Amino acid sequence: xxxxxxxxxxxxxxxxxxxxxxxxxxxxxxxxxxxxxxxxxxxxxxxxxxxxxxxxxxxxxxxxxxxxxxxxxxxxxxxxxxxxxxxxxxx
Length: 91
Fold this sequence. Notes:
mainly beta, four-stranded antiparallel sheet, globular, DUF6510
């Protein structure tokens, strides 16, 4: 293989997989808190909606799991409080 041939694709190659991910009910996904390691159904998170966006906190340690802020032109997702969000594959 030539050194000039790229071994990666650009982000557009993830479009299909990401479309599938964001078209499901994420509240049934299994989430793992980056702070304490607690694993559970995302629906168990404590949601605070009385701010400029949504904030989901871990029911075990109260660390922030997720933030969602919607502006007139964009929606921002901050998932850095999760080590993963596991969704079952649909048949």
